[in-house]
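Practice problem 4.
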């Protein structure tokens, strides 16, 4: 095996790594905020790497983007205003805009270069960028939420990188409190919450910070994501007030295509593993 033909992400602490065989490097740059690389792989299509970490592949991004969007959008009674903090590849934005109830979806990513590269190398993720309901902003999401007026958003989706570097503040109690303050009464946040196998203590700290901010009814949902460390990922939903009932009928009759998400997957993703219950729910 010639290592130069492979992209490898070594996962600190876990003594494990994930590799993909590459055909060629398509792009590399240091943006103002992070190091960006794009590869063409043998079997996963194109691959985006940020600061050495896998972000998106053509082949398997649907798991993540669908699960970051549809469970929350089918739990909120009538989601009209959605913000995506991060999400510069526009994959979450595309899923959010599949919902007819959504009147405005604002994507706030600090790094415009991520979106410009996604437009070139992941055009399918950007296919809804010209939807009149879409608004792409390239500013600091932490400041955006801090400056927002009360009752200005129904769902905030935090589609961030790992909690290091620019994304660290997106996992803090202060940020969650700012989210709480600008959510509508039925509002909720969804945050990508890493691997329950490799990052359980981080999930615990994140859940504690969410609860301390006033957010409540935390639900961590689980889904496969082979590109990311351990291949098993999670998202955590937290609500401003009482959790609303899952709109199961609407989900069963969803008027759009998905690859992974459906009503049964939604329910199954909420099943809590025994070790997770022991850690946080008992
Ligand atoms: N955001 C989650 C990336 C976390 C991956 N971590 C890693 N490879 N260590 C992905 C952005 C997709 N819109």
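Answer key:
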């Amino acid at each position: 095996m010639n290592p130069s033909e492979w992209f490898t992400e070594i996962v600190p602490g876990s003594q494990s790594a994930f590799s993909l065989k590459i055909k060629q490097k398509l792009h590399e740059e240091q943006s103002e905020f992070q190091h960006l690389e794009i590869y063409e792989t043998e079997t996963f299509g194109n691959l985006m790497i940020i600061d050495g970490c896998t972000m998106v592949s053509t082949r398997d991004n649907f798991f993540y983007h669908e699960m970051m969007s549809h469970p929350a959008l089918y739990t909120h009674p009538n989601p009209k205003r959605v913000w995506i903090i991060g999400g510069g590849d526009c994959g979450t934005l595309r899923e959010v805009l599949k919902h007819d109830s959504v009147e405005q979806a604002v994507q706030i990513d600090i790094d415009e270069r991520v979106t410009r590269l996604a437009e070139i190398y992941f055009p399918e993720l950007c296919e809804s960028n010209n939807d009149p309901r879409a608004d792409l902003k390239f500013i600091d999401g932490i400041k955006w939420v801090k400056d927002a007026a009360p009752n200005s958003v129904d769902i905030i989706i935090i589609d961030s990188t790992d909690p290091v570097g620019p994304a660290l503040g997106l996992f803090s109690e202060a940020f969650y409190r700012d989210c709480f303050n600008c959510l509508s009464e039925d509002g909720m946040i969804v945050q990508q919450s890493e691997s329950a196998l490799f990052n359980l203590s981080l999930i615990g700290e994140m859940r504690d910070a969410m609860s301390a901010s006033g957010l409540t009814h935390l639900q961590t949902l689980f889904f496969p994501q082979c590109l990311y460390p351990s291949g098993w990922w999670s998202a955590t939903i937290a609500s401003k007030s009482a959790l609303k009932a899952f709109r199961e009928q609407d989900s069963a009759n969803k008027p759009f295509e998905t690859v992974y998400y459906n009503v049964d997957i939604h329910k199954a993703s909420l099943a809590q593993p025994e070790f997770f219950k022991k850690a946080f729910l008992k």
